[in-house]
Design a protein that fits this description.
- The protein is built from three helices and five strands; from the N terminus they run αβαββββα.
- The protein has a five-stranded antiparallel sheet with strand order 1-3-4-5-2, with helices on both faces.
- Strand 3 and strand 4 form a beta hairpin.
Length: about 150
């Protein structure tokens, strides 16, 4: 079992107020599957979109660019109730854990049906690597300091 999966097994259902950032996504008819709800594979795209928006809004993306880049090395999702198009969802993002070379984000999918409880919840883990070698490298200290400062306020 991956570290991400282990975290998610123990991760309690997070409520809306526990997330630090939200990205709104408009659901498309094409997101629905034959069962009339959003296909499970689309949730990972929603997670990716929300994490990238979170990084850009907080100016974290610039700290993991240039000679560095990030790869998604683990992700998972638990589903609590259906979501379907038409409609909008809000994807909540918070940094769950910073390791030596990884950052794990906790994510929640919210909609108007139950606005404070997630319809789905997951984790998304980035590994920081050097662009030249594609090998893991420590999370930049500047990023670690900013995240620690944000968590403390």
């Amino acid at each position: 079992m991956s570290q991400s999966q282990q975290l998610n097994v123990r991760l309690p259902e997070l409520l809306r107020h526990e997330f630090e950032f939200f990205e709104e996504i408009t659901l498309r008819y094409a997101d629905n599957d034959a069962n009339g709800h959003v296909n499970n594979a689309h949730y990972y795209s929603f997670f990716d979109t929300a994490v990238d928006a979170f990084l850009k809004k907080n100016d974290y993306r610039q700290l993991i660019s240039g000679p560095l880049q990030t790869f998604v090395v683990a992700s998972d999702c638990r589903y609590f109730r259906e979501v379907s198009s038409p409609g909008n969802i809000q994807v909540g993002v918070k940094i769950g854990r910073i390791g030596n070379s990884t950052v794990t984000y906790f994510l929640g999918i919210f909609n108007e049906d139950e606005p404070n409880k997630p319809a789905a919840q997951g984790t998304f883990t980035h590994c920081c690597v050097t662009r030249a070698t594609k090998r893991p490298t420590p999370v930049p200290e500047a990023l670690r300091a900013l995240v620690t400062q944000t968590r403390g306020s």
